[in-house]
Amino acid sequence: MARKNQLAGDSHWWRNAVVYQIYPRSFADANGDGIGDLAGIISRVDYLASLGIDAVWMSPFYPSALADGGYDVDDYMDIDPRIGNLDQFDELVEKLHSNNIRVFVDIVPNHSSDRHEWFQEALAAKPGSPERDRYIFRDGRGENGDLPPSNLASHFGPEGWTRTPDGQWYMHLFTKEQPDFNWDNPEVEEYFLKTLRFWSDRGVDGFRIDVAHALKKNLDPLPDRDSYALSVMKDDGTDPLFDRDEVQDVYRQWRKVFNEYDPPRVAVAEAWVHPHRRPPYASEEGLGQAFNFDLLASGWNAEQFKNVISDNIAMSDQTGSSSTWVLSNHDVIRHATRFAIPGYGLSPDSFDLENQWYVNHRLDHDLDLDMGLSRAKAATLLMLALPGSSYIYQGEELGLHDVVDIPSEQMQDPQWFRGEGKFKSRDGCRVPLPWEASGPSFGFGPGGSHLPQPKWYADVAVSVQEADSSSTLALYRGALKLRRELYTSDELQWLDVKPGLLAFRRSPSWICVTNFSDEPIEISGEVILASAEITGNLLPANATAWLSSL
Ligand code: NOJ
Ligand code: CA
Question: Is 211 near ligand 1, meaning CB less than 6 Å away?
Fold first, then answer.
């Protein structure tokens, strides 16, 4: 029986929602085992409500061996016992809903973990069996089949095929513990429809869809691939591995399930595709929204920001959806730290996966951390003034930097271990949050922390920032509160301003102006909120102000 959603009624809530991403293992730990849990999140709902967000998105909390931070799912309809149980999940949803906060969960449909019941059955069954057909098993090449079926790399290392004890091979676009499902098998389709209903029935409002562009593949002939650079991916729907046109058939089915509920469940696609291929994922017949990572890939540059904003508003107009905006998440260098890299993102290729500075810049030298934080706050204030929906990542409201000095032996990220030194570890943005200035894990919990926390956490803890009206946390709270009051339509009008500035009007009394230059620039108008202290009429370098007139 579907649970009555306490927040039924408004079917457009997602259009300009501010969604806060929780990485459950690193948010708050109630029982002191060093791993964040649902009881920890429940104990911090007041904090979430105090931020003024509209929804939370929880990264995977499913049973998992953590080969890829939980994106290797053992059971899609359960909770990792280290994180909690379904009763606690229900309690959390109820508590969030009673604070007017919606809930997104993460769905990982491209691959399961190798511990998933179906994969274990597949290994136990014979080549050619129905059990194997739920995944992608093939014979190897060469006389004894000991060469992989094709020359396929994975995202996290050289091999995209792994051999089983009986000699067959299975395909995995990520780690070998993440076998890819065969999405041409109706059983797989049914299983995910059941999963979506399972969580929707528990009152979940929306879904974030992992690697949404990879489900459908053309495996005849088996593709070779040695790079996941976007430039290698075809952009016309015919790439053998990614963004094939027929993946939208899957989402049209899902949409029918979403529309069985009141309000209809919503979804956002994580699809690292050529930007012009994003609209189908965001269509009303499909998932309805798609992440736009273009701001996250932009350098600190007024022109790049302006182009990204204009292009994405135009794209969302094509589908009738609203745009999404993201500056940080659990996969990339936090934006405060990215903007601290001298020359960050000025390369024209910075969106190319091969050259993704936001992922693989080694953070071992040359960081201007103060400048990074100023730019990050300015970028956030700009983002929160845009029409559409913004996704913020836990800890960015504290202005956290990546933790750059985690010893290799304490790293957990497969991207680090399998990346042959090419990629930075994503652990740096996944370190448990500091709630207090002292204590065994800075208030994360009564015990330790599963990733080492740095000493500087003492200066940026929630308790410290709550006592400081000029803190980053105060800025986020102020901005989210004002945004609710000021956001009256999706209109955005660019304003003609001095070089170095970027400005737009959102309503007669809401103007956003950002100084991308290295010098203060004089502005006129009444400041209602700013990312830096304004003296006289000068907007400091690397700062954004919201004005009630210009
Ligand atoms: C995208 C997720 O955000 C990332 O953390 C994960 O490693 C891959 N998908 C594989 O599931
Ligand atoms: Ca715990």
Answer: yes
The residue range of the domain holding 519 is: 488-547
Shared domain check, 258 and 206: yes
Domain match, 202 and 314 both: yes
Closest ligand to the CA of 41: 2
Q: Which residue, 444, 479, 514, sits at the end of a domain?
A: 479
Q: What mean pLDDT do residues 484-507 have?
A: 96
Ligand 1 in contact with 212 (CB < 6 A)? no
Q: What is the mean pLDDT of residues 98-115?
A: 98
Residue 207: CATH number of its domain: 3.20.20.80
Per-residue pLDDT for 463 more than 60?
yes
Q: What's the rounded Cα separation, in Å, for the pair 467 and 27? A: 21
Q: Whole-number mean pLDDT of the chain? A: 93
Has 364 been annotated as catalytic?
Answer: no
Task: Determine the average pLDDT of the residues in 255-272.
Answer: 96
User: CA 384 to CA 514: how far, in whole Å?
Assistant: 12
Do residues 208 and 283 share a domain?
A: yes
One domain, residues 392 and 529: no
Q: Could you tell me if the CB of 108 is within 6 A of ligand 1?
A: yes
**Ligand 1 neighbour 161 (Cβ under 6 A):** no
260 is catalytic: yes
> What are the contacts of 288-292 at 24+ separation with CB within 8 A?
288/14, 288/255, 288/258, 288/321, 289/14, 289/321, 289/322, 289/324, 289/389, 290/212, 290/321, 290/324, 291/324, 291/326, 291/391, 292/323, 292/324, 292/325, 292/326
Query: Does pTM surpass 0.90?
Result: yes
Strands 55-58, 102-107: parallel, antiparallel or unpaired by DSSP? parallel
Can you tell me the mean pLDDT for 287-308? 92
Annotated active-site residue in 205, 210, 243, 294: 210
Domain count, the chain: 2
Residue-wise pLDDT for 195-241, tens only, equals 999 999 999 999 999 999 999 999 999 999 998 888 899 999 999 99
> What φ, ψ does residue 105 adopt, rounded to 5°?
-115, 160
459 with 528, same domain?
A: no
> Which ligand places an atom closest to the C-alpha of 173?
1
Q: What letter does residue 437 receive in the DSSP assignment? A: S
Whether ligand 1 lies within 6 angstroms of the CB of 72 is answered as no
For residue range 144-193, list pLDDT tens digits in order. Answer: 999 999 999 998 888 999 999 999 999 999 999 999 999 999 999 999 99
472 shares a domain with 531: no
Distance 210 CA to ligand 1 centre (A): 6
Give the CATH number of the domain where residue 535 resides: 2.60.40.1180
Give the closest residue to 513 by CA, choosing from 471, 542, 481: 542
pLDDT > 60? residue 390: yes
Cα 180 to middle of ligand 1, angstroms: 13
Q: Is the CB of 73 under 6 A from ligand 1?
A: no
Of 201, 246, 260, 285, which is the active-site residue?
260
For a pocket test of ligand 1, which of 66, 68, 180, 413 has the largest count of ligand atoms closer than 8 A to its C-beta? 68
